[in-house]
Design goal:
With about 350 residues, this protein is mainly α. The chain has one domain. Helix 1 crosses helix 11, helix 3 packs across helix 13 and helix 7 runs parallel beside helix 10.
Length: about 350
């Protein structure tokens, strides 16, 4: 079953992240002092959606063949385009370093980025070469845990995965209890994947809600996350601040039975991953081609950056991503990873 509401949320999540970074770029160019911090909530939406999709994909499955097929399909979906973005950015950085004011690539950064290995940059942040790739480190870790669940869960892969994640989050908090530092990969943000899996198991209930009830649930989720956007600073963690609100919104979307989406919205959902990975490069291209740094209107400049970055992601999806994914699936099928 294809969930049109979830697909629409992919588009919305990608646009939130693009807007968030468009305001940051406008700020860096001296065009505006305004920020759109709430746009970062798009990442929380993506994580909850991912948990939903994984729970749907592994329901009732177990064993080596199920685990191999699962990880093969996820690698085909995530890795080729991320590697392409990483290699392209690295190449451009060494050819035209003047285009990158804040980027610095050390000798070991490329292999660590390609292998989704968390490492800190010069600012003490875990940021691979494609900076938004930090989220993919969590994604790949989640996929590994789901694989373990498929191998050992005896038909209850997500239950075992949920137990593993709960234990890892508890370990992270225990390590930080006495003033220590929680390891990046044990962050409480992992709970958002569990919220997504819970959405899948509650979908039947969500589909019995009326339209007004679903709208109320979605608006409550947005309001909760917006009002508590700074919850992490209170010590309660981003996983709760963003995750609970995203849980409500994704649950409402899962219950929506839409016959079809308008083509532009469907295309944005299809291209959401490419938009997410390539919007930074889209900002640079748009800024250079249109000279937005010299525009008198900050609002128009931010809008131009947003539209240009989105168009760049759509072009990458249509011209590159679909071909890379097809080639990866065919290759993994030939060697028996995907049955």
């Amino acid at each position: 079953m294809f969930y049109n509401g979830i697909h629409a949320l992919r588009a919305i999540a990608a646009l939130l992240v693009v807007l968030h970074h468009a305001f940051q770029r406008g700020n860096a160019l001296g065009l505006t002092q305004l920020q759109f911090e709430f746009g970062a909530w798009g990442v929380d939406l993506f994580f909850v959606i991912s948990g939903f999709v994984m729970a749907k994909g592994v329901q009732g499955r177990q064993g080596w063949q199920a685990a191999s097929g699962f990880i093969g399909r996820r690698l085909a979906r995530v890795v080729p385009l991320y590697w392409a973005a990483t290699l392209l950015l690295t190449m451009v950085y060494f050819v035209l370093p003047q285009l990158f004011g804040n980027l610095s690539i050390a000798p070991g950064d490329l292999p660590r980025s390609l292998l989704f290995w968390p490492y800190e940059d010069g600012r003490g942040l875990v940021r691979p070469i494609v900076s938004q790739g930090w989220t993919l480190i969590f994604e790949m870790f989640f996929y590994a845990l789901v694989c373990l669940g498929l191998l050992l869960g005896r038909g209850r892969a997500m239950r075992l995965t949920a137990g593993l994640i709960a234990g890892l989050i508890a370990a992270g908090y225990a390590l930080a209890w006495d003033g220590g530092k929680t390891p990046f990969i044990l962050s409480g943000i992992l709970v958002e994947f569990l919220f997504g899996a819970l959405v899948f198991h509650l979908t039947a209930h969500a589909q019995r809600l009326g339209s007004a009830q679903r709208w109320a649930l979605a608006l409550a989720g947005v309001g909760f996350s917006f009002a508590l956007a700074d919850l992490a600073s209170l010590g309660l963690g981003r996983g709760l601040a963003g995750g609970l609100g995203a849980f409500a919104v994704v649950l409402a979307a899962a219950g929506w039975r839409l016959p079809r989406l308008p083509y532009p919205l469907h295309l944005l959902g299809d291209a959401s991953y490419a938009i997410y990975l390539f919007h930074g490069m889209g900002f640079s291209l748009t800024g250079k081609l249109l000279g937005v740094a010299h525009w008198p209107s900050a609002a128009l400049a931010v809008l131009a950056l947003t539209l240009g970055a989105t168009a760049c992601g759509i072009a990458v999806h249509l011209l590159v991503e679909k071909r890379l994914q097809h080639y990866a699936i065919v290759s993994l099928t030939r060697i028996g990873v995907i049955a």
